[in-house]
Specification:
Low-confidence stretches: 155-166
Helix content: under 10%
InterPro entries: DUF1668_ORYSA
Radius of gyration: 21 Å
Strand content: over 45%
Number of strands: 25
Strand order of the largest sheet: 16-15-14-13-17-18-19-20
Shape: globular
Organism: Oryza meyeriana var. granulata
Oligomer: single chain
Number of helices: 2
Protein name: F-box associated domain-containing protein
Largest sheet: 8 strands, mixed
Amino acid sequence: MIRRFLHMVDIYYKPSPHSHSRRLRLIDPSALFYPKDKEDALPLDRAAAAVEDARLPPTTMAFRPLGTPGTSTVLWMDMMRRNDDKIVTVDQTGRGILYDPATHIVRALPAMTTPKFCTLSLAVGNDLYVMEMTPHPDSDERPKRSFEVLIHCDERRKSGIRKEEGDDCFWRPLPPPPYVHAAGYRGLGAGEICGYAVVADSHILISTLTYGTYSFDMASAAWTKAGDWKLPFRGHAEFVPKHGLWFGLSAADDGTLGAWGLSSTVQQQQQPPLVAHGGCNGFTLPKAHASHVVHLGAGNLCVAKLFFMVFQREIYNSVFDWDQRDFAMLTGVEVVRGRGDKLHIIKHKSCRYTFGEHYTPASVL
């Protein structure tokens, strides 16, 4: 079953005071795919998809971080999606809210153990794992808590923790990956996470630029090193149950969508991922600052590219100025099996969304 909506998050930069808000828009993913009666005419593994300019949907909900008057604290927010389609939003202080797009109900969440900046998030069941892209070591004097999980109340009851009235979630701090304790570790650059994925709803795999790949066992909350190699994809790789494979954008070429098998990486330590498909190219965009692969269900994917273009405009008498315009390109992708169980990645339509002044796309959930 294909997802009913995609969530597009954009940032509205307010010139004064210096702050910004997050705005949520709902995108119908069916617009990215050709009708069933036209699919037979689509060539397999084609390199280009039709591009259509689409109207940006109206804002469904806006979120604004709370600041303290008279302080210079940078105000920002992070938005993440759980598997139940609810949106978790946290601000620079770690305060959080839970938004249900189906009912438009907003409710408070417990605050994070420690505020985080520039994070990755992974939904597993109804839980949400959140880690800073550049983890920090923990210590008794200065606990950074770079890694936490937002646990649903059902898990709380199993663990025997008393549920507070009106609160069905809680944050549990988790140990950071062990490479943060390496001699000379500085984090930024070498320790930054460049690829990550969930395997079998039991393990999290992360790759770094320098320290190799690590596996986190969710049941024991223990880390092990999988190898000195790096995962072959950039950012998050999405698991597609229909094919038992993980799909993501290649680490070697951000314009290529590939497929890999990760199960053996967890089951047999020191085993790099198995290549299941050489990749479908044609997703390269100039000045792209973010890329996302989103699983829509039923073997369908959305490849989202967020990018900008600079335009020259004449003010008067051959005096020119420069304008930057931000865009989001969403492409529908279908994964099918052909003769001999051969895997095919088929591109459908691409929809280009244009953002106005003071707006920029941040993510697609």
